[in-house]
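Hi V.,

You were right to ask for the full record rather than a summary. Here it is.
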Amino acid sequence: MFHLLHYGLMPRVVQDQSHKFETDELFRKLSEDTEIRVTSYRDKSPEERSQRFINDVKEGHTCVAFLNTGVNLMLQFYPPSGPTDKVTKEYVDFDKDPSKVVLKSRFIMNGVCVQMKGWIDLKRLDGVARLEFDYDLADQEDRVVRTRLREYEERQMKNEFSIA
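Predicted structure:
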């Protein structure tokens, strides 16, 4: 394992992500519709909290807590490839309901690729969300792990031949 860490090969994901998502108690709880609450700016007035939340979401981020588990997440609303110039409706949609924002965030949690889908009331700053297994991101991460492992093995083979 040290060699994998040394060469930057420690995987970001577990080996069988879908199995972990399906069997882990935390993921089981978070995969159900769950009450969430915005955790940012608690020291501000309700109006200011709401406006700051809206600005943060438009910039592509916010913090929420899943109330049934106490899990707090810093969410980002853009593709796993990284930030873009503008947050798209795929990740943030203010138009479906004027009193709510619909959100989607993709990330890796405890070695498993997931996506959070839900909505938040713009005045109360609470809503409902759930985690789903993210098959596309899981495939991407698995390919990265296999590529890095293959490169590592090739370097090891070259080192064995150069020592001999």
